[in-house]
Amino acid sequence: MANDESPAPGTSPPPTALHVQQVEKKPLGPWSATALVVGSMIGSGVFLLPASLASYGGVSLLGWAITLSGALALALTFARLAMRWPQTGGPYAFARNAFGEAPGFMVAWSYWVSIWSANAAIAVAFAGSLGALFPALVATPLRAGACALAGLWLCAGINLLGLREAGRMQIVLTVLKFVPLALFAGIAIWFVESAQFQPFNRSAESLPAATHACVALVLWALLGLEAATVPAGAIDDPARTIPRATLAGTALAGIATVLAVTAVIGIVPAAQLKDSTAPMADAARMLWGGWAGIAIATVAAVSCLGALNGWVMLSAQIPLAAARDGLLPRAFARQDARGTPVFGIFASSVLASLLVAANFSRSLVSLFTFSILLSTAATLLPYLAGSAAWLLRGERKGRAVAAFALVYSGYALLGAGGEALLWGGVLLLAGVPVYAWMRRARAR
Q1: For 225, which DSSP code?
Q2: Cα 126 to the chain's mean position, in Å?
Q3: Distance separating alpha carbons of residues 369 and 48, to the nearest angstrom
Q4: Which ranges constitute the DSSP H helices of 85-162?
Q5: What is the CA radius of gyration of the chain?
Q6: CB count, 10 Å around CB of 30?
Q7: Which of 48, 124, 203, 326 is most deeply packed, by most CB within 10 A?
Q8: CA atoms within 13 A of residue 322's CA, in its CB half-sphere
Q9: Residues near 349 by Cβ (< 8 Å), separated by ≥ 6?
């Protein structure tokens, strides 16, 4: 596996621990890598996002157009970065190689925060999907929170069995959710009523402000396009496999998601949609009856588990890469006999559990919306850094795409809203003492 020969900015080259992990037989192949991208992108967003977009109406279509363009630009940029630096850590490795240790740490910290925040949101969506099947399970905020935590820790248990087992499970879960979702999207889109998108801007905000807010919301449904770059050390032929998985996965998941969410908004009345805990199931029920609603709710539950399985895997890989370089405590770098970073899985899952527990008094929709905005805001820093990394260290080819990805990421970040940006800033600043402590520890 080839690595870029040029050293990272600073007085010394990147530590050897940053290089690709040498494993005799890599547990993740092309199918697992592609399933990781598709499975990470198609999770809770496609099933719950219509409720969050209900108050905006047709303006959400503008949000989709901008975000899908930005996501494809980011996918192309990350694919090129993965060919240049096929190293475990993905966005962290790119930022560290391009800008040095301190920026690399902040990207790793921000991305890690985004992942366990995302896991909290997906777990909440899993509870909502179960609620569509068994309403009594989410009849109270406490019950809903318990269901969310059960789904989260089930996926943590699967990942503790090992990367190979988690990768196989990811393929199965991705097929089980992608095929029904693609069928639903392809059929339901023909039943859309144009009146459902009127007025075009249903919110009280101006058209530019409403579009901006929609961009931040819909980006949640496309997060994960970089997923295959993170466990690069565990992927066969990463310089070849990762770019293909990234581009193919982003295209498949992006098209299916846009069609499905747009179909739901165009079928379910806005007054019903804004308070729905299972919007797609409601749309299916309206079109084909109760059995269809149950089927879609089942697919949604499987989809959330698939996304959780993939994101729990990634939640341990980012701190693993940073810990190998001495930027996080050594406990994150420890692996068991199967190569599983046990401490990273536990630590990330505990933090996601605390986020669910701290906000369980909110409704499922409001808790989901808060969690996705927090996760999106934290993810956009790695997206900004990755785009800038190619502009600084990459070849001339691809710079126009990277520049568009950079502008898009900054635009989407500003649309996340004051509460999410405030929480994201606080969590980012919480990493500063950790970085200072680790630097002091290495100097001893």
Answers
A1: T
A2: 15
A3: 9
A4: 91-99, 101-133, 141-160
A5: 20
A6: 17
A7: 124
A8: 32
A9: 116, 119, 152, 153, 156, 312, 315
CA dist 225 and 409 (Å) reads: 13
304, amino acid identity? C
Model-level pTM? 0.80
Identify the three-state secondary structure at position 28.
Answer: strand
- CA–CA separation, 365 and 353 (whole Å): 17
The whole-angstrom separation of Cα 85 and Cα 321 is 13
Token digits of residue 73: 């630009």
Q: What angle do CA 124, 106, 312 make, to 5 degrees?
A: 30
Q: At what angle do helices 207-219 and 45-53 cross, to 10 degrees?
A: 160
> Mean pLDDT per segment of 10 residues, for the chain of length 444 residues?
43 42 62 87 78 85 90 91 86 91 90 84 81 79 85 90 80 86 90 84 86 82 85 83 89 90 89 80 89 86 85 88 88 85 92 79 61 75 91 88 93 76 80 88 75
Structure tokens at 214: 């929609």
Closest-CA residue to 223 (of 378, 99, 331, 329): 378
Task: Residue 355: count other Cβ atoms within 10 Å of its Cβ.
Answer: 22
How far is Cα 279 from Cα 276, in angstroms, rounded to an integer?
5
Asked if 66 contacts 215 with a C-beta cutoff of 8 angstroms, the reply is yes
At position 1, the amino acid (one-letter code) is: M
Maximum alpha-carbon separation in the chain: 68
- Cα–Cα dist 143/208, whole Å: 39
> Angle at which helices 418-429 and 431-443 pack, to 10 degrees?
20
Q: In sequence order, what are the beta bridge partners of 28?
A: 235
- Give the list of residues 6+ apart from residue 12 with CB closer than 8 angstroms, or none: none
Encoded tokens for 429: 């600043």
Nearest CA among 267, 281, 213 for reference residue 53: 213
Q: Which of 356, 395, 379 is nearest to 427 (CA)?
A: 379
